[in-house]
Amino acid sequence: MTIPDVREHTTEKNWIGKSIPRLEDRRFLLGKGGYIDDLVLPNMLEVALVRSIYPHARIVSIDTSEAEALPGVAAVVTGAQAAEMTDPLPDFGPDPENHPWRCLAVDKVRYNGEGVVAIAAESRAIAEDAAELVVIEYEPLEPIVDPMAAKEDGSPLVHETLGTNIAFHREFTFGEVDADFEGADRIISDTLHWGRSGGQPIETVGAVADYDDASGMMSIHANSLSFTSYLFMLAGTLRVPSNKLDMHPVSAGGSFGSKLWEVKTPTIAGMLSRLCGRPVKFLQDRMENISNGDHHGSDRRYEVDLAVMNDGTLRSIKITTVEDYGAYIQFGVGHHGNALAQVTGPYKMSSVYYDVTAVLTNKCQQGAYRGFGSEVGNWVLERMVDLAAAELEMDPAEIRRRNFLEPDQFPYFIPTGNVYDSGDYGGVLDKALELADYAGWRQRQTEARAEGRNVGIGICTCQERSVFSATEFWFWFDEPGAPVSSMPESVTLDVDALGNITATLYSCAMWGNSPETMVAQLVGEEFDVDPQTVNVVYASSNQGLPATGPGGSRFTVMVAGAVEVASAKIKKKGAAIAAHLLEANVEDLTWVNGGFEVAGTPTARMELADIAIQAHLFKHGLPEEIESGLEASHVYDHPYTTMPNDDRTDLGVFYPFMGHACHIAVVEVDPDTGKVDFLDYAAVHDCGTMVNPRSLCGHIVGGTAQGIGTSLLEEFVYDDDGVLQTPSFAEYVIPTSMDVPELKIGHQETPSPYTPHGIKGGGEAGRMMAPAAISAAIDDALRDHGVRVRRLPATPERIVDWIDGGG
Amino acid sequence: MNQGQTERHSVSLTVNDRAVEAEVEPRLSLADFLRRHLDLVGTHLGCEQGACGACTVLVDGQSVRACLMLTVQADGTTVETVEGLATNGELHPVQEAFRTKQGLQCGFCTPGMLMRSLELIRDNRGITAEQAREGLASNMCRCTGYQYIVEAVVEAASNMDTEVNQ
After folding, report:
1. Percent of chain A, pLDDT > 90?
2. Domain containing B100: what range?
3. How many angstroms away from the CA of B12 is the closest CA of chain A?
4. Which of A615, A636, A765, B83 is deepest in the core (most CB within 10 A)?
């Protein structure tokens, strides 16, 4: 491929950049959101699961007779029976045949909470009653909990067929690592541990399946990503022809990654619907979502060495990480691809060593959580930069500024081969320092410390890569997994006879992001119409064009590409119609304020609605080649992706549109209780051209709140016996309004030279940065106590321990 | 434990100004009653253990976790849900403030947030941002980080004050 053309972006925009109220909101405010649990089909059954009470055990016997006998129970299905009706779930990990993942456990259970038996009944209550009547005899096996022990020879095995608990291991060297380390003044080293948290949206995952044995059609309504491009895999699992599976997207009550490609729930619902000949709803309860939801976030231990010069110049980094993936590995180590997309952050560093070991244990498996592993990389790099600054006695802002890439260095290829399209990191830092009143806070900090108060300031300057390519899921192996793909996104625009516009989306319904508002603003910009008048609908997969949906902060950029070309197609046809009717040359027409007019003759003009009614109703008055109607579709594949090289010293371009942000947190820590209070918090983000600044701010604040949870509160805790200690919101602590400060938000817009309007992704937002800023602030607050945050979450108990332990 | 669940109790209550009478199982939660028997699906269930607050409704003017209250306990009460807020398609000032301030993203916690906000505004004339923030700690939102919900509550209170005074 070639590098895409550099675009010229106009700054004159009518709708892009305006904080219009969201198109999505009215239905939610009225309580008419149309979530999955609101869908009730006639004669519908509901599902409850029996889940494993053991982390690791052989299933000796299952007696379902009492459950089956309960009035109102339609079906009781064990894992072995499910395996006769379904194939293993789609698994993008290495060696999937050696760690098969099924919708219900067969022969043995591999984590506390894994589904063993599914029950369909007339109501959820009856299904739960029946679940209590299932008798399962287990033979407990030694739990595999600690990934460091699990990776050693002689450990008991999560999957005997794999012969090891190491699902993947590889070292990568990008650039002259050894030379950069030999030439360094100092090597800064540390051990870090990012704990296990997850998206935990307030709505869980659910599906309503309706199998029609007359047509053989399997219709499934789901709040998971419909993922039309890869739907054939789910069809394979369900053993239905790929053209007989129709996924209907349903609005999700939040996802943050955790509903990405969630295939187990629709599989169980689909299997039971076909078995019972009735519609079936399966909606996880909270404990199911936490313990068996297949979407825990990263859980990584790190050994890191940073090569630096005495003037603060960063040269190289060596990262060795062991990741605890849980019992299965559905997305492989794509999370580390995410980290490698921006592994050197905003800094000029010339080489990277990366050693990743993916370990299987008796825990719920990982999936996706806002950042998909790149947020962890951000935290690690910033922890190391802070440590370097401390050792060199440099201001944390100064060491960062000294190493920033300069605005004239873009496009810039980092050592791993990924490209950063554009940026102005010094500009963002300046804005953040001013917004936070950094100098003022340093003064107030000095005063507070003189009073014995533990006030600290933390700064981070982090990347937010956007718009992935699929290479990051297979460049781990020498064999090319596939040609390059940036994963398509599609739209159909239909201008009706009165000139009203409907946009059809194909990937999934909204997830809490703003797909309708984004598309409406983009369409409004193209056609000079009020976005509030644009109708946005979602097609089911069977009616669908190729589409992928949100993930990796891609949706707005991708759908903008689709809208741009679909709009151009409509305008081209509209211009031909207008030229014919105005008796003008099409080259003489220009689009002005919602219609075509003859250049220099504004009275010779047709509005979009005038053109539309001609196109819809009066084809025979138009040139022969023009067909009736005024609609166009476009499938957009952004062009900037390249192949990795053969020895994987260059991974190619796989995440090119690079956002950036600076967060500054000011905290006060009570050393007696370990409580962290926010005194101030400033965040300046640059994700290129903003479409709806207010919505972006919502992602920044919401993402930061999740970052606060990750930093201070949230962890899926498995005890030494592998038992999940946090199965509900009583133990898994999500930030409330009292845990989140009021953010000061600033923006910088450095447009991407390669995307429509210069948009970059911004949806993962604050969670990419907050943990680094907060960790640094805690360090700074407790520097007299010798504390350095090496593990997240930094709970009050841990902070007190670190103080008592001296660091 | 399923024995005895066939027993039914009669309840009569007022839901969004409508008189409702029903025969219900003693174990039926108010949330399930609203959702499944009255088709008022705006009241959402996030955790079913009283932690998240998505199911918050007002019972005799006080916010209640509808997942923890049994329908039989609501006998004789007056219940307000999100469906009762708008009149003739016009958003209630609290809903309107959430819309203009973008105090929602996925919308799932929103009905509970709206009902809790309404209670806070009724109970605290001239509510401040600090009071709103403290009062909203009862309800979890995973999307917004709360900032624009706090702004919406203050704005709604101000608008409602104005309406009363006019």
Report:
1. 92
2. 93-165
3. 23
4. A765
